[in-house]
Amino acid sequence: TTLLYTIKFEEKLFMMMTLLSWISSALKEEEKIVVGQVSELFVHPVRTLNPVQIHKSWVLESTGLLYDKGITLLFKGTNERLKHSMIGYEALRRIEVSLSEDAKLTLKYAGKPDLVIDLNDFNKMENYTREKCPLGFEFCHISEEVSEWISDVAGRDVRAMFSPRNPVGEIVDIHNKYPILIIGEASLQEFTKEAGSDFEMARFRPNIVSINQKAYDDETWQEIQIGDAVLEFHHRCGRCTITNVDSAGVRSSDPMKALRKYRWCEKAKEPVFGTYFSVKKPGLVTPGDKIWLIKRRRV
Predict the structure, then answer these.
(1) For 78-97, how does the pLDDT look when each residue is reduced to its tens digit (9 = 90+)?
(2) Strand, helix or coil at 62?
(3) CA atoms of 244 and 100, how far apart (whole Å)
(4) For range 30-47, the mean pLDDT
């Protein structure tokens, strides 16, 4: 009798614990609120060049969006990175960039034959030699053909490099410490209204453009969910003079002047615009996905 009573008690206790767990999970789901929606999704296959807009579900890995910033341009001889904010390389912004379904990256530039880079080739690591840049990151040279094509546009010898992942043999990796940049459309509207100028979103190079959110609300998100991926706040994006160059490579000083006036952050000693998020849980993200707020940060 005692044994039977004990079994029944344990069964009831298990049922109660299961019910409480379900209620707790349901309450947590109810606590999440929609704070925005993915309007546009972008990857930058080559760091310095213009992005590719993604119109379908895309893989978000722990290191960022698939193929995002996977190719870096290093100066020949020093292996120092060609940064997109450097003056004199605006022609690179006039290269048209596209990415096919089978991971073939195509670069187009007026007066030159198209350049096609098969990103699948980066899986075959036996074809490449690893080397390091001054910061200690490992890179592999893609090919002389690719580097010469880009050097001709840049007007200086550069080497097109990709970042290998360990262990050898997996897909291209990304040496990108803060992988996802989110900017709200309302933030851009508010900023351009204050500045009295119509600046396009492309100047700010976001990965995700969100709509249906308050201006600068992304700065208050500690943890969010998009699709089945979960992201965590890392820091607000400090801005440099790349914002002075539009997608056609035309340079103007107006955007940075406006950023310094209206978006200056005294703590960071620089203007900020947009928010970087690290990836807590990888998954798929899709244009149109709702952005769920899991936890808000104290500002």
Answers:
(1) 989 998 888 889 899 999 99
(2) coil
(3) 30
(4) 92
CA within 13 Å, CB half, 224: 29
Give yes or no for a contact between 183 and 204, defined as CB atoms under 8 angstroms apart: yes
Residue 68's identity, in one-letter code, is: D
Q: What is the mean pLDDT of the chain?
A: 87
Residues with Cβ within 8 Å of 167's Cβ and at least 6 positions away in sequence, in order, are none
3-class SS of residue 176: coil
DSSP assignment of 134-171? TTS-EEEE--HHHHHHHHHHHTS-EEEEEBPPSSTTSP
Closest CA to 286 of 246, 230, 204, 226: 226
CB contact at 8 A, 76 and 157: yes
CA distance 265 to 246: 24
pLDDT tens-digit map of 211-240: 999 999 999 999 999 999 999 999 999 998
Residue whose C-alpha is closest to residue 94's, from 82, 80, 104, 84: 84
Please give the radius of gyration of the chain, using alpha carbons only, rounded to the nearest integer: 23
pTM (predicted TM-score): 0.84
Q: Which sign, positive or negative, has the C-alpha torsion 202, 240, 183, 195?
A: negative
List, in sequence order, every beta strand (DSSP E) within 227-287.
229-238, 264-265, 270-281, 283-285
Q: What pLDDT does residue 296 have? A: 95
Q: What CA–CA distance (Å, rounded) separates 184 from 283?
A: 21
